[in-house]
Amino acid sequence: MSDAPEPDTDFASVKDGFERLWTPHRMAYITGDRPSEDAGDGCPFCAAPGRGDAEGLVVHRGEHCYVVMNLFPYNPGHVLVCPYRHVSLYVDLTEEETAEFGRLTKEAIAALDETSQPMGYNIGMNQGAVAGAGVQAHLHQHVVPRWGGDMNFLPIIGQTKALPMLLEDVRGRLAAAWPGGTAGSDGATVATAGSATTAGSATTG
């Protein structure tokens, strides 16, 4: 398990108002053992694919889209599905991007089902500031696993989320469980129809 609770804040992320209480020791309970807005460097979602998989918290690289851990997760396993291309509107995605965007969302759910057995999910995107988008300029979809009792007194009264695993550890588990991919050089999976090199080169547009 890793010592550092969070990576640097310039990684791909959507910040919210919660403080995080990192509690890796509680993973045994969950698993059942009860005892900037511009393309390029200023955009976290353009920068993430250019980092190493572990460093950038990238779970899976497709040909047109990729999946990354949310730096400010609502729950353990909260991931974001993003196009490589710097585009803000869902309607502006190409047909190929739209198809892979949806497929990676389904695969994220399958990987989370395999590793965490959530009781449900919140799935969706916030498009525009009025809808609550944290990073408006680069489209991204949230996949948030949910369990009974995850809205207890800590997030409601204390504005704090208890997270039983560190982000990089969750990333590794999801990457290992990702359906239909092959392992990349430092842990993420790569779509069998594409490659990390091809995908990583399409980070702006």
Automatic annotation (TrEMBL):
Origin: domain of life: Bacteria
Keyword Nucleotide-binding among record annotations: yes
HIT domain boundaries: 45-153
Signal peptide region: none
Positions of transmembrane segments: none
Active-site residues from the entry: H140 (tele-amp-histidine intermediate)
Protein name: HIT domain-containing protein
